[in-house]
Write a structure and sequence with these properties.
It is built from 7 helices and 4 strands; from the N terminus they run βαβαααβαβαα. The chain is of the alpha/beta class. The protein has 2 domains: 1-30 and 72-147, Rossmann fold (3-Layer(aba) Sandwich), CATH 3.40.50; 31-70, no CATH class. The longest helix has 18 residues, at 46-63. This is Alpha/beta hydrolase. InterPro entries: AB_hydrolase_fold.
């Protein structure tokens, strides 16, 4: 499976168990707090930081979920499959330090790829050949019945 951004977070938070042969997580936020803060700062500058607490306060009311339930970084430790974590060097939605924290929380076997020059979710557009090679080799190595 390949999950990107919010899709990666949803996949991880669904606690997929052992049914996955291999997982690629691209540009996933570590916590909802960081996701909201990063995005508000990106689009609103310093005013965004001031608005983040107000938006975070609304999340449980609107989604019927606690903020603790929206922390993929806490759920990745239960992954039971080989995992490739992909992040963009210039990603402002999920920065490189956040991506590295997620990688550190994922159990072995795992790999990390920080795509030089890439922002949020544009890995294939920035590094097409390397993307095909890395993802293809990772999947070929770990998918059952494919050799």
């Amino acid at each position: 499976m390949i999950g990107t951004s919010l899709g990666a977070a949803a996949l991880v938070l669904s606690k997929p168990g052992r049914g996955i042969d291999a997982l690629v997580i691209e540009a996933m936020y570590p916590t909802i707090e960081e996701a909201i803060d990063n995005r508000l700062r990106l689009y609103l500058g310093s005013a965004g930081a001031a608005l983040a607490p107000l938006l975070l306060w609304q999340v449980p009311l609107r989604l019927d979920l606690t903020l603790d339930q929206l922390r993929p970084i806490d759920a990745v430790g239960a992954l039971a499959c080989p995992t490739l974590i992909v992040g963009g060097e210039k990603d402002q939605h999920t920065n490189e330090a956040e991506t590295r924290r997620i990688y550190a929380a994922v159990p072995e076997p795992k790999q990390l790829w920080i795509v030089a020059g890439a922002a949020h979710t544009d890995f294939y557009g920035v590094a097409r050949s390397e993307y095909e090679s890395r993802i293809g080799q990772f999947m070929a190595l770990h998918l059952r019945g494919i050799k």
